[in-house]
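Figure S7 source data.
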Amino acid sequence: MSAVIGLEDGTILKGTGFGAEGIVCGELVFTTQYTGYEESLTDPSYTGQILMFTYPLIGNYGVNDETFQSDGVKAEGLVVREACLSPSHHLSTRNIYKLMEDEGKPGISGIDTRMLTIGTREHGTMRAALINGSDDGEEAVRLAREQPDISSLDLISRVTCKEPYTIESQVKTADKKHVVLFDLGMKKNISMSLLKRGVDVTVVPANTPTSVIEDYNPDLLFLSNGPGDPQNAQNAIDVVKDLAGTMPISGICLGHQVISRALGADTYKLKFGHRGANQPVKDLESGIVHITSQNHGFAVEGDSFDDTDVTVTQINTNDNTVEGIEHNDLDIFSVQYHPEAHAGPRDTEKIFFGKVMKAMGGRV
Ligand SMILES: NC(=O)CC[C@H](N)C(=O)O
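Tokens for the predicted glutamine complex:
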């Protein structure tokens, strides 16, 4: 089937469509990881974005439903150079085409992803439209230009849970801890990382007020990853302001941006973001560089912590952007990268979640 992608700068690329027929719009973002297909496509942080893999051959192994990070594909669409149609994988009968078809999301292959990535790096992230079932490039450009900027979209309410729910850990521990997890568009492996350490987890919707969280009386408040501009997570920002100093608080990615804003920092949009499985993060105290999994388009303004009680503890060695912060007096710390991985390296998993356990007085 013919398909086309059009960008706001007028770029038009024609290719072969797969997955569902139809039109999707979103920011076109690229990831440099070359595995973790379904983990990325089901990551709710990709809501409002069309995902492009820079690696030229995608889908070499089949889709494993057990590694989904949410209940389905959340990226609006998929752009690849070449998709493998006959993956070799004993766990799966689905290839990447079938996944997109089952999930009702369109994809396009046969695209010069290198050219599109270079264009994105030079111009910055652009709005795009992907049409599967037509090669009308002018229409795709028109639709790309027509859509609002991602910062004006309320994406969190599309992916947060509707009602709170509690998952009890099956791991037996003498002194069970309880975390309230703000679901701003949570990747499943964040809750899994707590559950496997013997922690019970209550997941709450993004609009949950402070008083409800206080009633749970948790050992720690955790803020998840999620889509869009952190400025739009105003309720979570207010809750962190209210509860700072009353209980330990931690978070990942959007959660880190929310905590930073609550502690007085600004956030801004990166030119093209960090998305991949080999982003280098330096711990400023130890000097050690860890390789991390990342997916974000916004970042915390490091200078805005000057004259606050917050220290920037980790930076990205590619561009010196903020990767981790810690409050000097209170049990509040967060990271921009994904220590829970899925996809990507687990180098920081034990360090980060060990610190979360320690903050609760639990077994590390
Ligand atoms: N993975 C995330 O939580 C992403 C956070 C935010 N939406 C950003 O793009 O920066």
